[in-house]
Predict the structure.
Amino acid sequence: MISILLLAISLWIETAPAAPVSRDDPEQADLNPTSVSTAAGSAVVVTAHPKASEAAQSMLKAGGHAVDALVAAQAVLAVVEPQSSGLGGGGFLLHWNAQQRSLEVLDGRETAPERSRPDDLLTPDGEPLPWRDATRRLSAIGIPGTVALLWEAHQQYGHLPWAQTLEPAIHLARDGFKPSQRFIRSIQLAQRLGSAHNPAFQALYLPGGEPASKEQRFRNPHLARTLQQLARDGGPAFYRGALAQQILREINALAKDEPDFQGWSATDLSSYTVIRRAPLCAPWLTHQLCTVPAPSSGGLAVLQTLALLTQPGHPLDPTRPSSWRRLADAIAWADADRLYWIGDPLGGSAPVNALLDPGYIRKRSLAMGASRGSQPGPGLPPGVQGYPFALPASGQEQGTSHLSIVDSLGNLASYTASVETVFGSRHLVAGMVMNNQLTDFSFRPSIAGQPVANQRQPGHRPASSMAPMIVFRNGDPVLALGSPGGRRIPHYLSRVLVASLLWGESPIRAVALPHLSRSGRTLVLERDSPLQWPVAPNGLASAHQPVLFQDFGSGIALLQRINGRWHGAADPRREGTAVALP
Ligand code: GLU
């Protein structure tokens, strides 16, 4: 009997090929991860690329504040890591101002242009476009918010001249840099996804049909010019004036190959606004966890996951398989709520407080305990009478970068930015990679006559998984973190927070321990993780829960205050680095 059971379980364990690019995991992990890059000091920077970390560090050395370092790093990432984030994308900043002791969210998420329609990503017969096809559509490109966010943050918190913060990026775009292995692999991935639709993209990244070579300096003169214009005229030039005109001309000229695309208007750009939002915070253990609110649902998912996990009677011990299973269950139960309830607050605010209500969490946790790994649906939180939305078909309808910086005054920037899929839409405008963030809306605006929460509407922002976080203890920041990774972002961050705050793991171990996730009933476990599983991973399979091994492309940038000093650690699954001032 036991051997039959074991056989049944072994049949449930599969090893997947390298994780495909999907909405769940939009970029690849680096193979053979090397050691964790760490640094400690009075001011610390962790970004996704050594050149971006260097640029940020040079701003701090010149007396700049965290936000000056952030602008420099994001501009450099636009040049050296264009597959993940850049000026043609969007993002969220969580900023701690040490002097005013205030925490603020700047939402620079992309918006749907005014001529977009709710059914733009449906075929003529009303079916969702295949995801890959949708990723390259002009109608998937949202009005970019990155430049507006950087400008606003700099206007408010910057210390160095704006133009100075863009110098390292201009230099790299104009004079070139040696491409990394990851940069080249990302171009190959874009090629596999399809990039022939944009001749400028082909000419820059695939000249003669071949990706840039490791031996030759890679230059992007158009991007250098765009950055120079922004340095001279300021961030608003992206939205009004000569650069804005050029962006409109180039985007609208591409429309000849996509007749359904309605184009962008001058107002789409000139009316773009960064939205200041109240941070979403909740207590956990002895800490206060803060993150960004809707239209992101990633932070809510982290807060719910952790609350579901730590109910009385469920000790979480890393050496017990049941603890890891419970973490995977909590991830799935939090996803069920956030993917149902969260959309742009312009469409009506979600019952976020009710979704974090301790009584509600207790009930969900009990139901989760009895669920034996089955796929959960969304819950009905207190005060909500019925389900107002249709349930989006998540399976079927379904590149980012995170950086964390603390300066020596104690100001903190926790910032996640994205162009969505690897190289976004693979459309290039004025040297910038254009996002395809509007694929983050539900492709179907309604199902059986009932609207979905995350519905595409002109001027609305698609729901996101990005979750820059800052953790406080006794009112002071002690941890900052975030990650790329699409829908798995909250799964990675929950696991890191459990390791740091509950298990007391060091920053190195907190980023390098294995990740896990859930896909339907299936438990998805990290294969070849930088650190070994503390339990035998095969032992996590059960008769009712299959297990699948995959590479996970997280890119955690972690800062932690330990004995008065800040320590940084960069995820070894990507090419990021941590650097510090003494
Ligand atoms: N577009 C995704 C989001 O906003 C992020 C994609 C990624 O992490 O690569 O949630």
Notes: Confidence is low (pLDDT under 50) at residues 1-20.
